[in-house]
Write a structure and sequence with these properties.
Blueprint (H helix, E strand, L loop, with lengths): L2 H20 L6 H9 L3 H5 L12 E7 L5 E4 H6 L2 E8 L3 E9 H8 L5 E8 L4 E5 H5 L5 E5 L2 E5 L12 E8 L10 E7 H5 L2 H13 L2 E7 L1 H9 L5 E4 L2 H9 L3 E16 L12 H11 L3 E3 L5 H12 L4 H4 L4 E3 L4 H11 L2 E5 H7 L6 E4 L6 E9 L9 H12 L1 H9 L2 H4 L5 E2 L11
Parallel strand pairs: 1-9, 10-11, 10-12, 14-15, 14-16
Antiparallel strand pairs: 1-2, 3-4, 4-7, 5-6, 5-9, 7-8, 12-18, 13-16, 13-17, 13-18, 13-19
């Protein structure tokens, strides 16, 4: 091989090796690509704080019989008027609370008519039901803040009503009432239950709860008892025990239940011309008789009139027969008789409820009260269907059960308290006649 050829071959080998070296990747390229994979993404996504706004998620829903269902956030609740108050917890005693009034929350939802109860549901599934009537009467009921939880503050109610961790309030509507086959009943009652305003509260409640329609006839107890005896009423609400017993004994009444009581009082002009203050009932009637000062008698055989007659008999006096000028018989109900007594400056025996209900329109003062002989007791009596087959006994029993039901008895016991500072009637369905000395 010639030198020239050898030289050419050597140069080709050197060139080949040089080209091979130039085509190899740079040793730092791979690490540079690797570093791009491990970018500092975690640092960029590390702050999720923006998703933790507490006011963004509802913490309380209000559903059921409302005009507008609510899903309230913490911010929604705190935008309402936040109040602080002290309330007595049934177990913890007096404690301070902060929150929004339950009434404001319900007003925001718009509670529909016919609401019967509120059902509180806690985050752990616990449920507590409270009558809506109790909630309506509770001005200081709160949805209270307790950290991130909401607790119910329900003054005057049982510990079960003080639900914790509440997340839902459901307004429950009363169940639809099925109309009775015979929906009409006649209630014969005394003028005192009508004039006091009690029946204006009870009758609509009864009709709404049962579907019955009540025709109320307010007369004296004697007339009401006569209506029962003649089958002209289905149910009686009366207050003359001494006259009620013979009706029952004769079989005209089927069921007789104690309902309530109040008391009689003697009212008259503030100057008290017969000076009856401090006397007993018998002596008071004697003093009025001897002073020959105006006295108004209902003269209508009502329960109140029967009580008045009993006092004249105990005093061995009979102005109803003698008819002196000062003795005024109205033949009317209690409200009308009080008006006459006020106009004449006369004394009159009245039930306390009717007097208090009309007091603002009268120039009469309470002059005698508090004697055991003044007790005024009311019973409900169903007319016996075996005597009068046309009476609506089912309706009569429905009314009797309604007026002696614990819920209705509670209403009776509270009637008049807000306006007069005292109840006008005292519920007695859980007592017996013997308990009241009858």
């Amino acid at each position: 091989m010639s030198r020239t050829i050898k030289f050419v071959l050597l140069m080709g080998l050197i060139l080949s090796l040089a080209l091979s070296a130039c085509g190899s990747p740079a040793p730092t390229a791979a690490p540079a690509t690797q570093a791009a994979v491990v970018t500092e993404a975690p640092a960029a996504t590390e702050a999720p704080a923006a998703t933790e706004a507490p006011s963004a998620e509802p913490i309380l829903t209000v559903t059921g019989a409302v005009d507008t269902e609510l899903a309230l956030t913490d911010a929604d609740l705190r935008a309402m008027e936040v109040v602080k108050l002290s309330a007595e917890h049934p177990k913890k005693g007096m404690t301070d609370y902060e929150g929004v009034r339950l009434s404001e929350v319900l007003a925001k939802a718009g509670v529909q008519s016919g609401a019967s109860a509120l059902l509180f549901t806690a985050s752990d599934g616990y449920e507590s039901e409270v009558p809506y009537a109790d909630v309506e009467a509770c001005a200081d009921c709160l949805v209270a803040f307790d950290g991130s939880d909401l607790n119910m503050v329900m003054p005057g109610m049982s510990s079960k009503a003080w639900a914790k961790m509440v997340v839902k309030i459901e307004v429950k509507a009363a169940a639809a009432v099925k109309a009775p086959a015979n929906p009409n009943i006649i209630l014969a009652t005394t003028t005192s239950t009508q004039d006091s305003g009690l029946l204006d509260v009870l009758v609509p409640m009864f009709e709404e709860q049962t579907g019955y329609v009540v025709q109320t006839i307010a007369v004296g107890t004697g007339e009401a008892l006569k209506m029962g005896e003649e089958g002209n009423a289905d149910v009686l609400l009366v207050h003359a025990p001494a006259s009620e017993v013979p009706l029952m004994d004769a079989g005209f009444g089927k069921d007789r239940m104690l309902v309530m009581h109040n008391d009689y009082i003697i009212v008259g002009p503030a100057v008290d011309p017969a000076a009856i203050k401090g006397l007993g009932p018998k002596d008071a009637f004697v003093a009025i008789y001897n002073a020959a000062v105006p006295f108004v008698s209902r003269g209508d055989d009502s329960g109140t009139h029967k009580k008045e007659v009993s006092f004249w008999k105990k005093a061995e006096l009979d102005p109803a027969t003698e008819k002196p000028e000062w003795f005024i018989e109205t033949g009317q109900g209690m409200g009308a008789s009080l008006t006459v007594a006020s106009e004449k400056g006369a004394y009159v025996l009245t039930d306390r409820a009717t007097y208090l209900a009309n007091k603002d329109k009268l120039q009469l003062e309470i002059l005698l009260e508090g004697n055991n002989a003044f007790l005024n007791v009311y019973h409900v009596i169903t007319v016996n269907p075996e005597k009068w087959t046309a009476v609506n006994y089912d309706g009569a029993m429905a009314f009797a059960k309604f007026i002696t039901d614990p819920g209705t008895q509670k209403v009776i016991g509270e009637f008049g308290v807000e306006k007069f500072g005292q109840p006008l009637f005292y519920p007695d369905a859980d007592k017996t006649d013997a308990d009241l000395g009858l």
